[in-house]
Each structure stands twice: as structure tokens, then as C-alpha cells.
Amino acid sequence: MPDDIIADATVDITDVVCPVTFVKAKVALEELDDGQVLSIRMNDGEPARNVPRSLKDEGHRIMRLSDNGDGTYSLTVRKLG
């Protein structure tokens, strides 16, 4: 996966718990146009497992999920119509 992916928008959902994590990520993605990229910062555990899977199930492309080394993950997802 290329390291030069530029996000069109960023959302931090480390302050909420499931299932609100997915809701906040989905709302942020809905504000983008098809093909744009969203970067999501989330906590380890349930969010890191569930948010990528749920977004993929909705038809979006997971581009990268990386461990930030501080108990959080960064998810990069491309919105697909």
C-alpha cells in the first residue's frame, strides 16, 4: 500500500465507544464525495476490529490500518458509491 495516500478529511473517534464509533465514522464518510479518502483515528480493541469491517461491509475500500503505538490506530478508507 502506498505511503503517500492523502486524506481528504480526518475524524478522531477516540472519545467515543462502540457503536457510536462506527456512527461517527460513517457520518464523516457520508460528507465526502465518492472516491475521496477519510482518515479515522480510533482506539485499539473493539473500534479497531469493528469499524474497518463495518465500513468494508458497506462497500467502502479499506486502504490501510496502522498501529500508532499509543493505543490508537489510524484507518484510511476510500469512499465508494
State the low-pLDDT regions, or none.
none
Biggest β-sheet, characterized?
Answer: 4 strands, mixed
Helix fraction by DSSP (H/I, runs of at least 4): 25-40%
| Shape assignment | globular
Structural class: alpha+beta
Intertermini distance: 22 Å
Spatial arrangement of strands, main beta sheet: 1-2-4-3
CATH topology: Translation Initiation Factor IF3
* Total strand segments: 4
- Going by CATH, what is the homologous superfamily? TusA-like domain
Q: Beta-strand level of the residues, as a percent range?
A: 25-35%
Under the CATH scheme, which architecture would be assigned?
Answer: 2-Layer Sandwich
According to CATH, what is the class?
Alpha Beta
| Rounded Rg | 11 Å
How many individual helices? 2
In round numbers, the mean pLDDT is: 94
What layout of secondary structure does this protein have?
Layout: E1 9-12, H1 20-30, E2 37-43, H2 46-57, E3 61-67, E4 72-78
Parallel strand pairs: 1-2
Antiparallel strand pairs: 2-4, 3-4
